[in-house]
Design goal:
With about 400 residues, this protein is of the alpha+beta class. The chain has helices spanning about 10-20, 20-35, 40-50, 65-80, 80-100, 105-110, 220, 230-260, 275-305, 315-325, 330-340, 355-365, 375-385, and strands spanning about 120, 125-130, 135-145, 155-160, 165-175, 180, 195-205, 210. The chain has 13 helices and eight strands. Strand 2 (about 125-130) and strand 3 form a beta hairpin. Helix 4 packs antiparallel against helix 5 (about 80-100), helix 8 packs antiparallel against helix 9 and helix 8 runs parallel beside helix 11. Keywords: Oxidoreductase.
Amino acid sequence: MNNMTIQIPTEEEIVARATKMIPWLREKADAVEKARMVPEDTIQAFQDAGFFRILQPKRWGGYEMNPNVLNKVLIELARGCPSSAWNVMVLGVHPFEVGLLDEVVGDELWGEDDSALISSSYAPFGTVKAVEGGYILNGEWLTSSGCDHAAGGAFLGGRVADAEGNMEFRSFWVQRSDFEIEDDWHVVGLAGTGSKKLLINEVFVPAYRSHVIGDYCDETHGHVNDLYKMPFFGVFYSAVSSVIIGMAKGMADLYIEHMVPRQNLNQAVGAAVNDPFIKGKLGEAQAKITGAEARVLMNTEEAWKYASKGELVPTDVRVRTFATNQFTGGDCFDAAHMIFKKTSTRGVWLSSPMQRQLRDILVGANHITQNQDNIGELLGGQMLGNPLPQPNPFGVKAQ
């Protein structure tokens, strides 16, 4: 597609498209969970709305927008169906990663169809061996969300020794014809994401289809357009966090709808909306959700101030963004859990969408991007002047 023919929507227009879908997505959420994957018509609706083009390079029909546009879209979609929003997050972030690679990759991927989608599995489950001209991948890669819709293949993570013998964590673009999908996705939450296993049998990946995974590395961030000067982890982690924020906002939506008509049978206050504990927990939950949303959007906007001017984001901003985004899952699960407890017995029935919403938030908060337990030390140490550990995900070398 020639980029002169692209009609790029405004931020307000594309976010409004997501908001309009919330009731429709909520109606489909139970069926999505039972099917253990997002249906094709939903993915097509997301394609038609332009959600997968937000971070796609303009060279191949994309919009190259501020990553907060995608974050705001994800927040809205997750209020309706967390699993569907999770697919938009995964499949919508990878066009950004293509923008970091040699332009040959984009030509190969989108030369005939600029709507082709890419899934991923970054955890280095399989093995990687460096050979002349590239790498050999072999083994199994788990939890590739939305892989059934990814005609463009997948980004797979793996550890491999560099020329000096040091281990690198790299991402490899593998074409769809080079792997099989095994349906092993039987889980307690986010079941509708279709995050199945990918099977790779001695596949050669040329070197130009790979990059070091991290915020920055010399081979990717020295030549790219302004959007792709954003830190990789900053974009990825904020997108995951945004879906979880949307899930928590959806939980608050459901709670309000549940409580407004409810009458307390065992308390003298009568209407649930007059119960001080029901009101108090909702207010406290909303404060946690609002704080998480403000933090993630602020982090992205601060980094964007640099990237949108063609500058690389300073290390201290990257470290702070990387670390503080990881507290989103814990904050949002706490918020959702505290109001779920106030639904008492009524919330536990499988017919109640609130129990599904809580389970989805639980699984989302378990994602590696939400590892709040040991990330505070990294941020606090950097603020106190400690050197960053080696190796680190920021591309910062020891002095």
